[in-house]
Amino acid sequence: MAFGTFSYQNGSGYSDRIDNPEDYRTFNIEIGKGAVDNQTNATVRLYTGPDGRGDSHYVNPHSSAYLSTSYQSCMFST
User: pLDDT, tens digit, for every residue of 4-61?
Assistant: First the structure.
């Protein structure tokens, strides 16, 4: 299990977050364009398709990024 919070903008444009995410579990969530903040101890990999499919982008632990692409799923790994 990762410890910390991953914050992102959902597909409706509202702020959302995942607290203490489970390792290697695929979260099928819509992550919209904009800022993401990975304040967990895990790397998060974002996928353009559901179920961890499609092109991907990663955000290191305790890092932020600005996304120009929307994503449909993510997975954390410590």
Answer: 999 999 989 999 999 999 999 999 999 999 999 999 999 999 999 999 999 999 999 9
Q: Are 38 and 44 in contact (CB under 8 A)?
A: yes
How far apart CA 39 and CA 53 sit, in angstroms, is 24
Which strand ranges, in their side-by-side order, compose the sheet holding 56-59? 26-27, 73-77, 43-47, 56-59
- Please give the distance of CA 40 from its chain centroid, rounded to a whole number: 11
Task: Give the integer Cα–Cα distance in Å for 77 and 46.
Answer: 12
Q: Would you list the domain boundaries of the chain?
A: 4-77
Write down the pLDDT at residue 20.
Answer: 98
CATH of domain 4-77: 2.60.20
